[in-house]
Amino acid sequence: MRQRLRYRFDNAMARGVGSQIAMLAIVTLVLILVTSTLLTLTGLSPQGHDGEPVSFGRLVWLGLMHAIDPGAVGGDVGSWSFLFVMLAVSFGGIFVFSALIGVLSGGFAQILDRLRKGRSVVIERDHTVILGWTGKIHALLTELAEANANRPGASVVILADHDKVAMDDEVRSVLGDLSMRVVTRTGSPLVRRDLDLVNLGEARSVIVMSPDGPEADTVVLKTLLAVAKAGDKAGKPPHVVAEIKSDKTLSVARMVVGDAAGLILTPPLVSRVLVQTGRQSGLSVVYTELLSFSGDELYIQSQPLLVGKTFREGLFAYEDSALVGVYTAAGERLMPPPFDRRFEAGDQVIAISRDDDTVIANGRPTAVADADLAPLHPHADQRPEKTLVLGESQLLPLVLRELDAYVAPGSTVLVVGEARHLESRLGGDALQHTAVTVRVGDVTDRAVLDGLDVGGFDNILVLAETEGRTQEMTDSRTMITLLHLRDILRRQGKTVPITSEMLDGQNRDLAAVTEADDFIISNTLVSLVVSQVSENRRMAAVLDDLLSPEGHEIYLKPARDYVQPGADIDFYAVVEAAARRGEIALGYRLAARAHDPEQAYGVALNPRKSARIRLAAGDRVVVLAER
């Protein structure tokens, strides 16, 4: 019996603070009832003011007061037996209320600990949910804050298997005061019960971050399954954006979240931008401006005023925006459409603009003098290129395939890296335009770099060597290689465009590189694309079109192919010159400002078309073209 009572007592106490308080209340009540009954039956009750013994109810009240306030015993009047009984009640009260204070203190500690762990349900609406915590979170939050700057009360909820206090501290220390509210919760995105904490049913979008490690796609896929189940339960499937690292996972993820979700295959994305920016000085600044919400970015909007006009006429219909494509009423995406295609009712334009409210058909084109335009002749033919690729990276096969899609036949690539997996990563894919040579060596070794004739290459790509290294160690090796390359080229008196891949954007400042073609690609690139797609689900396909080797891409071409050097013109003239070539002018780059970070390295994307400019022979025009 004793064991059973002890077992029941243990179970009752283990139920929490409420059960413990109830047990103490029962002990107090029993103590008071027993002593009151004893005093009544033994006749030890003191006499009241009327000369009669105090009633049972009055004794219960006196016992309660003694249990609550032990000092009340000093005012008792009666026999010594009565006084000792009341003293015993006071001692019992001291025990009970001391235990109660301990229980309440422990209960409050549990409540504070639960709050610290972030286990309460989020009551937010129209918020963005981020599942996971990686090095990309800082850039992602910054971009989301820019995107939601005109939305009062905008909020982001982060659910990750990290300590809430640590996440909150990092958000405050790294990002400072954001214009939006950031709420953190501790939990696993793989657990349905934890997903219920972030109120997925009321979210405007859900971003699934890819963790570091070889099984990243497995974690992302399981998270997508949990999100899909939670969305079915809420009755409102949220807009999902997820990072995928393997194309093998992409098809499975599509089956889970459907075609409407924004699934971003990050290795091809990074390799495409790395190759394109490596071949065109200044293009990195264009992409940064285009993908960041702090500058001019892409918008998709209806423009009924253009109905009946051709796409070529639409190029001149905007003073503060640059038209790049059309979403037809049937849902077809044209990037760009034929220039003679006429806008129909229900069509939406795809335009580069400062904000969504600046996409206005307010253009007032001026007459263009043919004397200000360059003669219409083909662009210079491509010549074979020599490219140096430094670093053993998992992106290497993708980089070589992307590079092969752009270069002329007869081009060569020298790959230098460590011996562990270099040969196997090259694979057996046959390249059509490029001959690849492999040399084993440590890319941070000055002796190895001195033996490469660095100045004889047309482009240099430095890849991040991530395998077996931390993020900081990877970026440190990249910076060492970059500094050696710059010193070698300076001693040789030569200039070769260098594009370096880094993982942490904060390390870019430490590299102390001040040229546009030295733009360092990092996790920031993925964060920019993720934030764009999270705000507009159709943006994934638009960005894929812009970054793909097929179709139209962004180029920086010699300004002398479009306008007469030194002519006093407005940008409408540049738009006309590009349109005659079947291209779309998006901006320009001034060679005189190519080394000035305060002037965006000379790049002006989506300039005001009526502003007067003079383009020199060494300047470039940013165009959307096939080649």
UniProtKB/TrEMBL annotation:
Keywords: Ion transport, Membrane, Transmembrane, Transmembrane helix, Transport. The chain crosses the membrane at residues 21-44, 80-109. It is a multi-pass membrane protein. InterPro entries: CASTOR/POLLUX/SYM8-like, CASTOR/POLLUX/SYM8_dom. Pfam families: Castor_Poll_mid. It is found in: Endomembrane system. Its main location: membrane. Residues 269-360 form the CASTOR/POLLUX/SYM8 ion channel conserved domain. It comes from the Bacteria. This is Potassium transporter TrkA.
